[in-house]
Amino acid sequence: MSAHRLAVTPWETPAESWQKMLVPDSEHNRELARQVRPPNWVPPVPARRYNLVVIGGGTAGLVTAVGASSLGARVALVEQGLLGGDCLNVGCVPSKAVLHAARVAAEVRRASWLRVAGGGAVESDFARVMERMRAIRAELARNDSAQRLADLGVDVFFEQARFTGPDTVQAGNQELRFARAVIATGARAAVPPISGLDSVPYWTNESVFSMTELPRRLVVLGAGPIGCELGQAFARFGSRVTLVDMAPRILPRDDAEAAAVVTESLLRDGVEIMSEAKVERVERTRGGEISVQVRSARGAAALAADGLLVAVGRAPNIEALDLEAAGVRYDARQGVQVDDFLRSSNPRIYAAGDVCSAFRFTHAADAMARIVIQNALFFGRARVSQLVIPWCTYTDPELAQVGWSEEEARRRGADPHVVRVDFAEVDRAVVDGRAQGFVKVVAHRRSGKVLGATIVGPAAGELAAHLATAVQHGVRLSSFARTVFPYPTLSLAIKRAADQWNRTRLTPRVQWLFSKFLAWRR
User: Fold this and answer.
1) CA dist 175 → 289, 410, 456, 505 (Å)
2) What's the pLDDT tens digit per position in 134-158?
3) Neighbours of 295 (CB within 10 A)
4) According to the model, what pLDDT value does residue 469 have?
5) Cα–Cα distances in Å, from 320 out to 27, 80, 306?
6) pTM of the entire predicted model
């Protein structure tokens, strides 16, 4: 692997690192830059005072800025890197484009199983896969473009922002005064303190999409969502992938039984998983390859790699903001400290998204931004604790979680009843050859209200939306039994769960009463 393909990535702030998101220099990356950081952008003349100054142009910042401006507020947005944040540039959009290509490659390999000619060995043109990803990213960038924001009435400044007082922000050489401000600077890839790591080239999610060549051997540090998603994708493209994590299993935040289903799938795709393993040192060998020295219960091992991906978590972007000047309390790991209304220790300043939340997802940032608009501009009392935030890991199969698990329901004093339906019982899943996995719904034993759910299987993220709605609005599981679902669809797994729940209500005494009543009707 040539050195220019894999640049050393120290722990950086976005201001120092956004340029690497535009590597390689290509038509699509140049178009991306024209949209989300125009090279000839002329900053506007600041207003005397803004209703809202938004710091950060990712999902939380964009939703806040556009929403507030559409309601008549005078809004400024300050972004030090690329508009669109992680989601557009190094997160949801590029990763899902790559994952889709990897999934298609896997589908073609299994075509013979479906009695379709042409299955078997597949060669992926990795460079063209990545080029397609960059084309899609550039196309979608129009939605987050600086010109679109300006057309909607938002004053956009491409500068490093820092607070100079409780109601002022410095953006370059401009001072912006505000009635309210929102910190939405997001988070970046965390880099662990591993001996030798700073002296070898490696990727994070912020640089991995600059790849143009597929590494023959890839070691992934971290078996969370990013590590599992990309590890599986690269294995499907042809890399020999090894996942290394200190936890006893992959996806430790998710249901253990569901994570085991994903583990089986990763192993089938050729991913080697080293759990409860500590990386003690990383170094370059004389031959130019990377040696990752690992110790686990099985002893010490040296993993030879052509590429190294670090995916061990996220760290909030707060260092350059001078939060002390604004009286905003923060924690280096958790980010800006906010109350249930997303208000910081300075009542003029709010925060939203990854910079203040444990739920570091695009949809969570969007939801929090809407709360900020209500509370900051209109004396609202919307609470972040009232949100039901599902999440999904887009491996194959997908793994989605909504609301409470059975264990959490018990801890919170609820009386849970768990209903489980295997996708092997769902006709559409069987027909599609996607019968691996299950739907597990946690309902209140007496009322039947849906408290949470775990889904591992095809389209788990799509199915989770139904159950997230149920949890958010206190819907009873039996309501799904009374709903007519189209057949054959995967969503019938939820209806089957509801039918199963209803059968638990049919106790021997109820059956006896029914039999007596029906005998009388004869």
Assistant:
1) 49, 52, 50, 65
2) 999 999 999 999 999 999 999 999 9
3) 14
4) 97
5) 32, 11, 34
6) 0.93
